Give the backbone structure.
Amino acid sequence: MGYWQGKRALVTGGCSFIGSHLVDALVARGASVRIADDLSSGTRANVQRLLDRKAVEFLEVDLLSPGAAEGAVDGMEHVFHLAANHGGRGYIDLHQAACATNLALDGLVIRAAHRGGVEKFTYASSGCVYPEHLQHDPSHVLYLTEDLVQPPYAADNLYGWAKLMCELTLQAYHRDYGFKCASLRYFTAYGERCLENHAVIAMIARAFVKQDPFIVWGTGEQIRNWTYVSDIVEGTIRAAERIDDGTAVNLGTMERTRVIDAAQMILDRTSVKARLQPDPTKPTGPYNRVCDNSLGKRLLGWEPQVSFSDGLDRTIRWYYDTKNATTVKADFERLLTER
Ligand SMILES: NC(=O)c1ccc[n+]([C@@H]2O[C@H](COP(=O)([O-])OP(=O)(O)OC[C@H]3O[C@@H](n4cnc5c(N)ncnc54)[C@H](O)[C@@H]3O)[C@@H](O)[C@H]2O)c1
């Protein structure tokens, strides 16, 4: 019998892009899954197939409200904590106070899980915990290793600080109470169900509505390592099985891709002809963010299975099959910066 067969697992934020893929994978492995989500950015549609066949329990709840976290963790063996006030770069730069609510949210969920006797806690952290000053120069071939997050800390925005505080809180719970936990630093996930407030989907959407000139946020020289959602999910599940001591592990590819090149790949694949026009006044984030993933290989036997090229093909296909150009066009600017 597999590790997850019959295990009671809570996925907070289980209606989100990544959360819903994680729920799919846990259900497929035989876990008994409860989702707690307030639908503030996640959608019921993301898990509707599971709801229809009563394959998951769904609590529509704001985990910040009194008693909600305690109710959500009740009877659970594992908690995967993905609920967060979060969006893409535009959102986290422009909505700092909203992102700061994650400090409270994470504290409440950890405390409830520990007091409620949850055996393991797995946390969706982020590449935003890394010091910004290391990530300025795109000509510098740098792979961020986990140990670069150390005093004096310098996370990316209040969103990144909250992720960092949650990692440190979990490590303290492990030291002080023996609480079993792990954090995964996701690096720019993309794939089916991702929203337009994240760069890859935003660029696919620009091609979809045939934007010309095609706006690229930043100079376009900024480098990312986009990571396909199934790889993120696999690493998260393996960490829940294998890491107990609060260690934080990068989940990301080591493919260094310039944003301007990603934009061109999308134009080529969609056969859209448009002039690329960088706009450095737009939220851009660090210019050089790519992780080292050797710790994940060592601790989890994990490595990304989907190249950016293949993941992009799948994501474009999904976007073109499921979206309506008139609807996307009508709401375009809001989709880029809201959640
Ligand atoms: N997408 C990425 O590239 C990326 C990168 C790093 C980390 N992460 C983290 O992964 C997790 C999932 O992100 P995502 O991009 O799939 O979508 P997301 O950020 O939209 O997911 C957050 C989910 O939490 C829910 N939620 C928010 N506040 C809540 C509250 N108070 N109570 C209950 N539910 C609440 C939302 O409705 C949503 O379903 C988040 O924690 C995010 O910070 C994502």
Q: What stands out?
A: The mean pLDDT is 97. The chain has two domains: 8-191+227-251, 199-222+257-286+307-337. The first helix runs from residue 17 to 28. The radius of gyration is 19 Å.
